[in-house]
Amino acid sequence: MTWTSELQALANRNPFIDELVKQGYDVGFINAHLVIFGVPYLNNSGELKYLDMICPLDLREGLLIDRPSDHKMYFTGEVPCNIDGQKIGTGTAEEVRRVSDQIVGNRMLSSKPAGMRPYASIEEKINQYLSLISSPAVHKFPGVTPRRALEKHLQTALSPLKFPDSLSAREGVLELSHKLRERKVAIIGCGGTGAYVLDYIAKTHLDEIHLFDDDIVHVHTLFRLPGVYGEKHLGLPKVDVLADAYGHFHGGIKPHVERVDHSNLSSLAVFDFVFICIDDAPSRQMITQSCHDASVPFVDVGMGLNKGENGLYGFVRTSGGEHGDFDKLNGTQHLPAQNAHDREYRNQPQIAELNALNAALAVIRFKQHMGFFDRLTETHAVVFDVAAMTMDIAA
């Protein structure tokens, strides 16, 4: 969000103001007034309008905000109303409040907390007025938000993310995160591991994330997906369910209710990277060969689990990540071309922590390829032994 030096100084001393800005409100601190720009409201005809909410501040030493000395709020516009067209539960009067030459309020609102007591803090006052003014508009127009700074950011950002990447900015790695811009990736297989891959990369600046899977959500699927899904998702295509859930965060998720086979293999050539998260070895062989022929880097993931006297044991495998890895891995245990005889994993599907680990290793390898993470060795495959808690590397 945009900070002025005065607003920054105010936010440094008053955590509530800092939180307002970080939540995406378009906030100004002008001549001892707090101004929240672009607050939505309804007029008496039920039309959506916007106002700038003007609140005089009672300032102490060092820009600390004291408890409000009155209950008034100012704005320019029509009287805010509820959905039924009746004005919100506040007193109103025509009263001018001049903040600057550009910002002048012509109306006053008057609302006290329950019990008709004074406001205990500026936080209580601002939150009460925000709710009174904007709640009817947000209820009638669900896509509307008083967080105008967030909307302004998203309109100008070169990213499909629906929230500003404040994490990368805060950690000082924004230039590394931007290395994923304008890139398209595919996830083939959206069961446990593929869904966790999506969970991780949906928080990146990737331009498009394509999901390929022709299966539906079963009861056992609910135990392997990240997050919480329920009865309403049963029987629906996995890719549609995931695209709907993660589409609220990332605008470039493209579901394909189809299995990748000889009929659509050529579509993989358009991607910058492919995650292969399937458990059928002949299909894996076909897809990795196609990626290799099209010079598309890939990561293939897999597990091998067995049931012993003391519980499950086995490994989690991540293979590939660079151009040319297929030649080094093809025909080896790190890129198996035949299905195992023992399919204990199919009988033990509720192992989300191993799906998550497998996905995390795959995404780390992908981010190494993209230059986000450093890479010190020419590693072609990584195998994690579940029982021994050790990692083997195939160089």
The name of the CATH superfamily of the largest domain reads NAD(P)-binding Rossmann-like Domain
Poorly predicted runs are: 342-349
Which architecture of the largest domain does the CATH hierarchy give at level 2? 3-Layer(aba) Sandwich
Number of domains: 2
Written account of the structure:
By secondary structure, this protein is of the alpha/beta class. The protein folds into two domains: 150 residues, no CATH class; 229 residues, NAD(P)-binding Rossmann-like Domain (Rossmann fold, 3-Layer(aba) Sandwich), CATH 3.40.50. The chain contains 13 helices and 14 strands. The strands form three sheets. It has an eight-stranded mixed β-sheet with strand order 9-8-7-10-11-12-13-14, sandwiched between helices. Helix 1 packs across helix 2 and helix 7 crosses helix 13. The longest helix is centred in the N-terminal third of the chain and has 19 residues. The relative contact order is 0.09.
